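User: Hello! I'm new to structural biology and keep hearing that structure can be predicted from sequence alone. Could you demonstrate with Fumarylacetoacetate hydrolase family protein? Please show me the input and the output so I can see what each looks like.

Assistant: Of course. The first part below is the input, the amino acid sequence of Fumarylacetoacetate hydrolase family protein. The second part is the output, the predicted structure written as tokens.
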Amino acid sequence: MTVVFQPTPATLLPTTDGRQFPVRRIYCVGRNYAEHAREMGDDGREPPFFFMKPADAAWCVADGETGVLPYPTQTSNLHHEVELVVAIGTGGRDIPAERAAEHIWGYAVGLDMTRRDLQNDMKKQGRPWEIGKAFEHSAPMGPLHPKASTGELTSGSIHIDVNGVRKQTGDLSELIWSVNETISVISRAWVLAPGDLIFTGTPAGVGPVVPGDLMVCAVQGLGELRLTVGAAA
């Protein structure tokens, strides 16, 4: 049987052990640090909620290099959100939180880039806000580090500097819903599979970037992600 057209190649992300990780789905957790939840208008330990990005929104900047993030169309308020990214290596449904770490292949530092003005417009209208989150190049990442080399990450600093000024800072231990709890909750709504990525939430301090800005992100033990914001299309 022939195909109508050649399928788009899978999104492959480099790993620090010299291999490539094929991306299946990208799940993102909203408002998963208390201070960020408060700055976005919520408070307390509300049940987690999720949105998704297309697999081809993910792309990698190698350690020691500075990538160029194209400034997206239709926005004048592009925001940075630095996050720990979890890569799933073993799938499953209804995964207990106490067994969730067994399903983790590795970790990376990532950015959930957000067209905040478009997201806010959709919120006001009570409509889905993928247009604010799920656009091209919206999920830049550093290389994936195998859990076998990092150990399970439950604490450690996370931050982003913009033009040398610290904008977001926190600790992985401050996640409202831990990585293991998040994996468990997602697996009750969807069947997790190898290749899935989970963006686990961002600390307080999200804010805008403009063309020419330099963003330097880090999660303790995972190196840096360096990006310059490119010109508007």
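User: So the tokens describe the shape?

Assistant: Right, they're a compact way of writing down the 3D structure. Reading them back into a model, for example: The chain has a mean pLDDT of 95.
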